Amino acid sequence: MADSSAFRRRRDIFLSRLGAYAAIIPAAELVTHHADCEYPFRQNSDFWYLTGFDEPSAVALFLPHKPKGEQYVLFVLPKESAAEVWTGFRWGTKGVLDNFNVDISHPLDALPKLLPHYLEGAEGIAFRVGKHPHLEPLVLKTWSEHLQKLPRSGNAPLSLIAPCPILHDLRLRKDDFEIDRMRIASKISAEGHQIVREFARPGMNEKDLQAQIEKYFLEKGTRGPAYGSIIAAGDNACVLHYTANNALIRDGDLVLIDAGCSLEDYYNGDITRTFPVNGKFSGEQKVLYEIILRAQEAAIRCVHPGDNAENVHLTALKFLVEGLVDIGLLIGEVDSIIEQGAYSHLYMHRTGHWLGLDVHDVGAYRLGDFHLKLEPGMVLTVEPGIYISDRLPVPKGQPEIDERWKGIGIRIEDDVLVTKNSSEVLSDIASKSLIDLEN
Ligand code: GLY
Ligand code: MN
Ligand code: MN
What tens digit of pLDDT does each residue of 278-337 get? Predict the structure, then answer.
C-alpha cells in the first residue's frame, strides 16, 4: 500500500503543530513468539498514521525547523535480496522516495551518524521515552551531545516532549476518510457475528465458532481478528478476557462472542454479542439480557456532541444497577450502591473506550478535572455487561447470589460514531433484540 493524500494531510497538520520541535517516530519491531519464530508484524499505529509504511524497524523524522523539502525523512531497512528471500519484499530507500512522498530517505544504519545533523536547529525533541528501548539510547546520546556543544554552537534542542498529546489528539478525531474505514471495519465485523450466530449449535466447540468468524474476516480481505477473539460459552463468559476458546457449548448455554476484524490499514471493529445457542433464553438469562440491552440503548442515546464518555458510562451503570436492584441481586439505593462500588462483583469494567487504529484507541478521556466533550468524528464502544459467578466476593451488605443466576455472563458491545447532531451505530447490522436472537 503506497502513500496517499490522507497520510500527506496528517503529516502537514502534525508538522504545523510541532512548532519548531523535531519529532522522532519509530516503526514497530518484530516481536519474538518463541525461539526464533516471530509474531506476524503489527505496525505501530502512530507511525502508520503518519507514514502508511508497513515495514518494521524504520524511523520517521518530522523536522519543521528545516526548509520545505527536507522535513519528512525516513530511515528504512535497505533492499537486500538475502534478507528478502526469507522475510519478503522491502521498499528500500529508492522505493520509499518514489512511492511514499518522503523528502529524504536513508538506510537505517545511517541513523546514528545523521541524527545529530537532523536535530540541529530544533527547539526541542518530540520523542516518547520508555516505549522504544532500542532507539532511546541513541536519541538521548544525540541530545546530550548537542547540549554539550551548546556554549560554542549557540543552539541546541533544549527540551524533550512527548509527541502523544499532539498525535493522539489528531487520531481521536476521525476525518471522512477514516470514518469510511471505520464503517467498513464495523460492518465486516458485524456480518461475521451474524454468520457465526446462525452457524452455532449445541454440541459444537467454542473453537468451531472462532474458526467460523475469523474465516469470514479473512475472506473479506482483512488482516483477521483485531484482538484475540473471545468465544465464551456459559460460565466462561464471566472471564472478561477469556481466549482459551476450547470448551464444549452445551444446550442451554449463552454464547458470548467478542470479536472484530482489523482492516488492511489497521482500522478495527470491536463488537460483542451474546445469544442462546439453542435459540431460546432461559428465564434468568432473559431477565439479565433485557437489563443490559436497556442499559446499552440508554447509554448509546447519550452519545452526541457536547456530552462525554463518563456520562455514557454512568448512564449504563445506573440502568444496570436499577435492574439488578429490581431483581434482588443488589440491595439498597441506586446512588449509594454506585457511590460505594457495591455492584463491582457483577459489573467490573467501564462501559467503553475510544476505537480506531488501536482497539483501545488513543486520546484523552479527561483534561484535568473536565471530561472531554464528545465531538463529531470520535468513535467509541458502548459495552455494558453483567457477569455472575463466584469468582469475586459479594461486597458487605449485598445479598448472596442464588445458584440459578450463576454461570451467566452477558455483554453487548457496539461501535458508535459521534455525528454532527447525534450518533451512528456502525455495528448495528449485528442483531441484538430478543426477538432476533430467539428462534
Ligand atoms: N475486545 C476488547 C474490548 O471489548 O475492550
Ligand atoms: Mn471494547
Ligand atoms: Mn470487545
Answer: 999 999 999 999 999 999 999 999 999 999 999 999 999 999 999 999 999 999 999 999
Helices (H) and strands (E) in the chain, counts: 13, 20
Q: Is 41 in the pocket of ligand 1 (CB under 6 A)?
A: no
Task: Indicate if the pLDDT at residue 226 is higher than 70.
Answer: yes
Query: Is residue 86 located within the same domain as residue 197?
Result: no
Output the 3-class SS for 123-148: CEEECCCCCCCCCHHHHHHHHHHHHH
What distance in angstroms lies between residue 351's CA and the mean position of ligand 2's atoms?
A: 8
Of the three residues 169, 188, 217, the one that is the final residue of a domain is 169
The CATH number assigned to the domain holding 104 equals: 3.40.350.10
Task: Kindly provide the residue ranges of all beta strands, DSSP E only, lying in 304-399, ordered along the sequence.
Answer: 366-367, 370-371, 379-382, 385-388
| DSSP states of 144-170 | HHHHHHHHHHS----EEE-SHHHHHHH
pLDDT digits (tens, 9 = 90+) for 180-220: 999 999 999 999 999 999 999 999 999 999 999 999 999 99
Site of grid cell 487520531: 171
Out of 138, 169, 200, a domain closes at: 169
- In short, whether 361's Cβ falls inside 6 Å of ligand 1 is no
Residues across the chain: 439
Query: What CATH number has the domain bearing residue 245?
Result: 3.90.230.10
Ligand nearest to the CA of 241: 1
* Domains in the chain, number: 2
Determine the residue of 210, 313, 358, 360 to mutate for testing ligand 1's pocket, defined as the one with the most ligand atoms within 8 A of the Cβ atom: 360
Q: Separation of 232 CA from ligand 1 center, angstroms?
A: 14
pLDDT digits (tens, 9 = 90+) for 99-130: 999 999 999 999 999 999 999 999 999 999 99
Residue 267 has pLDDT above 90, yes or no: yes
Between CA 15 and CA 25 the distance in angstroms is 12
Q: Domain residues for 400?
A: 173-437
Burial of 393 (0-12, 13-18, 19+ CB in 10 A): exposed
Is 148 exposed, middle or buried (CB count within 10 Å of its CB: 0-12, 13-18, 19+)? exposed
